[in-house]
Design a protein that fits this description.
- Helix content is about 10%, strand content about 30%.
- The chain has three helices and nine strands; from the N terminus they run H-E-H-E-E-E-E-E-H-E-E-E.
- It has helices spanning about 5-10, 30, 90-100; strands at about 20-25, 35-40, 50-55, 55-60, 65, 80-85, 110-115, 145-155, 160-165.
- It has a nine-stranded mixed sheet with strand order 3-4-2-1-7-8-9-6-5, covered by helices on one side.
- Strand 3 (about 50-55) and strand 4 form a beta hairpin.
- It is globular, with a radius of gyration of 20 Å.
- The mean pLDDT is about 85.
């Protein structure tokens, strides 16, 4: 991952568009699979709406992801609202709930990836040539990785999930051990 190319592109007078991509990685111990779902909420020049970046295909899927900003020193708790019009998400939920009843994707890893249009693979453009720049599979903003905390709502139209940071999960403490002088003798012994 390299942030230098994206920051250089953002500072231009006419930068290319920011492309937002998402991955959902299942956990084998919770969901009995390690399937990775890749999707985006935008559109593309391709008829199928697929975006290819770093050799991975991201399917177009109606999704709204909000709440990624840090506010007043609090860790973000993003909300993910996904279309369920075709029953795709409900089907995934039924599959994972066969392994762990009532799991509803809790514990799955959700990653938000942001790059720029000029760094997308050439296959996204007519004639397989990126007119905006050179494809770069490493040019991206810092990835934002969260864990699915719970399913907040499911109906025929949408499924809503609440996400949490790795150290913002219920019952998880960081660090997992309290640092005391008995366990770590060098604590408190720094002098000048």
């Amino acid at each position: 991952m390299s942030t230098a190319p994206v920051f250089s592109e953002v500072q231009k007078i006419n930068p290319s568009a920011i492309i937002e991509l998402f991955t959902l990685q299942l956990d084998n111990s919770l969901h009995s699979a390690t399937t990775t779902y890749r999707f985006h909420s935008g559109s593309n020049l391709n008829a199928n709406g697929e975006i290819v970046w770093a050799g991975n295909a991201y399917q177009r899927f109606p999704i709204e992801a909000t709440g990624f900003a840090y506010q007043r020193g609090q860790i973000p708790r993003p909300k993910l609202v996904v279309s369920n019009a075709l029953g795709t998400i409900s089907a995934i939920l039924l599959t994972v709930n066969q392994t762990t009843a009532g799991n509803d994707l809790t514990g799955a890893t959700f990653t938000r990836i942001r790059t720029m249009a000029r760094f997308l693979d050439a296959v996204n453009f007519p004639g397989s040539s990126n007119p905006l720049g050179t494809p770069d599979p490493t040019a991206e903003f810092k990835r934002q990785v969260f864990t699915v905390d719970r399913k907040a709502k499911e109906n025929r139209e949408v499924v809503e999930f609440e996400l949490a940071g790795a150290i913002d999960m219920a019952g998880v403490r960081a660090p997992k051990r309290q640092c005391t002088r008995a366990l770590f003798p060098s604590i408190g012994t720094f002098t000048q």
